[in-house]
Amino acid sequence: MRLSLLTSLAALAFSSYAQSPSADAYVASESPAAKAGLLANIGPDGSKASGAKAGVVIASPSTSNPNYLYTWVRDSSLVFKTLIDQFTTGEDNSLRGLIDDFTTAEAGLQQTSNPSGSVSTGGLGEPKFNIDATAFTGAWGRPQRDGPALRSTALITYANWLLANGNGTSYVQNTLWPSIKLDLDYVQNNWNQSTFDLWEEINSSSFFTTAVQHRALREGAAFAKTVGQPSVASGYTTQADNLLCFLQSYWNSDAGYVTSNTGGGRSGKDSNSVLASIHTFDVDAGCDAASFQPCSDKALSNLKVYVDSFRSVYGINNGISATAAVAVGRYPEDVYYNGNPWYLSVFAVAEQLYDALITWNKQGSLDVTSTSLAFFKQFDSSVTTGTYRSDSSTYSSLTSAIRAFADGFLEINAKYTPSNGALSEQFDKSSGTPLSAADLTWSYASALTAFAARSGKTYAGWGASGLTVPSQCNGNAGPTVSVTFNVQATTVYGENIYITGNTGALQNWSPDTALLLSAANYPMWSITVTLPASTVVEYKYIRKNNGQVTWESDPNNSITTPGSGSATQNDTWR
Ligand SMILES: *[C@@H]1O[C@H](CO)[C@@H](O)[C@H](O)[C@H]1NC(C)=O
Ligand SMILES: *[C@@H]1O[C@H](CO)[C@@H](O)[C@H](O)[C@H]1NC(C)=O
Ligand SMILES: *[C@@H]1O[C@H](CO)[C@@H](O)[C@H](O)[C@H]1NC(C)=O
Ligand SMILES: *[C@@H]1O[C@H](CO)[C@@H](O)[C@H](O)[C@H]1NC(C)=O
Ligand SMILES: *[C@@H]1O[C@H](CO)[C@@H](O)[C@H](O)[C@H]1NC(C)=O
User: Fold this and answer.
1) What average pLDDT does range 401-427 have in this prediction?
2) Are residues 362 and 489 in the same domain?
3) Which positions are annotated as active-site residues?
4) Positions of the region Disordered (predicted)?
């Protein structure tokens, strides 16, 4: 995964590569192979994971050229999200013990001091550890700030299932929530710092990292409320809004694609953006472009630009029609192992397209906009902008062609997968021979998630629906301060006091989601909220009684938060 000098590489000799060229046949044979390949790489009992602690995912059993016998937080979290999705939707009920091993192993890694720091001084940004769960102390591209976001997403999915399935709250509150909160606090406090990207090469801002951080804080805010932590939730919401705002800045409107890294001096056309779209898919959000949903016009335009950038750089793509599926890799400028297609990048293109088909089918229509027109023209050169309902012939012909295009990407991987179904990291751009790390766990996970999307499977949304991009971006992820609001208010039985105001932490003036104050010292009502430091915040208290909302009289209340520490604001209901 890491850029390193290409050493002479004996091409792996394998006798019969090329699986059956049909997508259906490939899914049938590769599904069990990928699942078995994935499980073999998880300790303590995985057949290729000897020496790995329980719940630790090895990236690959390869120990030289390259040595990937380590555990990465990013890879492990994506792998376990796949397993947790299978478990929580009833597809595989045997996985609970392994998932519990994972949550325990990751909680241990969080507390393991490492070159990025201790648990409270930045250590959560450490990208990789030894497989016995000790710190890796060699030189590396660190920190990588997507890991805590992806890990919290996996854990929240599992925690929500436990809560919904009669586990009671104590296990989730006492065991999972502390781990989840550490990761989310890290994201909340550090998202606006530079990071190494998911390929561990560029230290700047990275679209994938920003997108998965946004998702984590959004679902983290909802989860914090579920476990009775509304003021923690409001802090997450504040930074989720800032992340959503920042996410927009990666879009290159002139050229119609996402510039995946702000540094690095590359074109920015990168599998990074496709992986971001599939790992933040929320079918409830429709084709929302602000969160780059798979069927959004921006994500489709980006997909075309990204795919096309590989048509001329890999020999195995020679002679393939300009509108057919081709082999794709991380980014066209890649030189790692000479720069080749990656199985997981090919699967990701297919998955984005299957996700798009799921959403169009659900909403009963698809939109062709000026932004996505070039994407759709690949399938029908005469198509024009407009909304096509699912009972129209244009909808039928476009969606059939897009499904065939998506299947084409599976067929590319099928062609270069050996007959035993083993998936390495890459395949050679000229010969198609598998190369680099053998049995890459992430390759297997990417096959399983693409196949699930092909079969129409979706998972719980994470709150991408109905979001509005704030009109002003605030890049200041910290510092924050803790502010206690006390208000003297007499109430009648059944009536409660809430607060809302002009920041995400105060629910942006929403009476529906306003924060409930505690009446423990009635007639004083109180709440402590995390707010941005040195900021003017406007707010009002409201009364709610049986759904009836009464606002305080004008004007709005206002405070200027301190630069650090905490503050108390004493008010009397007006
Ligand atoms: C809740 O789930 C956890 C994780 O599987 C398990 O260890 C614990 O015993 C369960 N508790 C209850 C009350 O079911
Ligand atoms: C990454 O970039 C930031 C901002 O330019 C810089 O402060 C930091 O030292 C860099 N980190 C590494 C490891 O190069
Ligand atoms: C921090 O946020 C601001 C405003 O959104 C943005 O301009 C800046 O690039 C961000 N910096 C990093 C390193 O993400
Ligand atoms: C209070 O703030 C809201 C939201 O910004 C605004 O619409 C309203 O006019 C303000 N009220 C007064 C009296 O300024
Ligand atoms: C607010 O009220 C609390 C409790 O009555 C009191 O301890 C505190 O000194 C007051 N703070 C301010 C800033 O008035």
Assistant:
1) 98
2) no
3) 197, 200
4) 550-574
For residue 193, pLDDT over 80 is answered with yes
Q: What is the pLDDT of residues 139-166, one digit of tens each?
A: 999 999 999 999 999 999 999 999 999 9
At residue 9, the pLDDT reads 35
Buried b (16+ CB within 10 A) or exposed e, 163-176: beeeeeeeebeeeb
Closest residue CA from atom 5 of ligand 1: 100
- Count of domains for the chain: 2
CATH number of the domain enclosing 502: 2.60.40.10
Residues 388 and 536 in one domain: no
Provide the 3-class DSSP secondary structure of residue 498: strand
Question: Residues 532, 433: one domain?
Answer: no
- The Cα–Cα gap between 187 and 469 comes to 19
pLDDT-derived band at 563 (thresholds 50, 70, 90) equals confident
Quick one: which ligand is closest to 145's CA? 3
Same domain, yes or no, for 447 and 504?
no
Average pLDDT, stretch 507-533? 89
Asked whether residue 313 is domain-assigned, the answer is: yes
User: How far is ligand 4, taken at its centre, from the CA of residue 559, in Å?
Assistant: 15
Retrieve residue 516's tokens. Answer: 């409930």
Ligand number with the minimum distance to the CA of 524? 5
In the predicted model, is pLDDT for residue 13 greater than 60? no
551: three-class secondary structure by DSSP: strand
To 10 degrees, the CA torsion angle through 524, 525, 530, 532?
Answer: -70
Q: Which range marks the domain in which residue 524 is found?
A: 480-572
Dump pLDDT digits (tens) for 112-140.
999 999 988 899 999 999 999 999 999 99
Q: Are residues 397 and 498 in the same domain?
A: no
One domain, residues 486 and 393: no
Check whether residue 519 and residue 404 sit in a common domain: no
Q: Is any atom of ligand 1 closer than 6 Å to the C-beta of 266?
A: no
Binding-site entries: 140
- Rounded to the nearest angstrom, the distance between the alpha carbon of 203 and the centre of ligand 2 is 6
CA angle 199, 205, 206 (to 5 degrees): 45
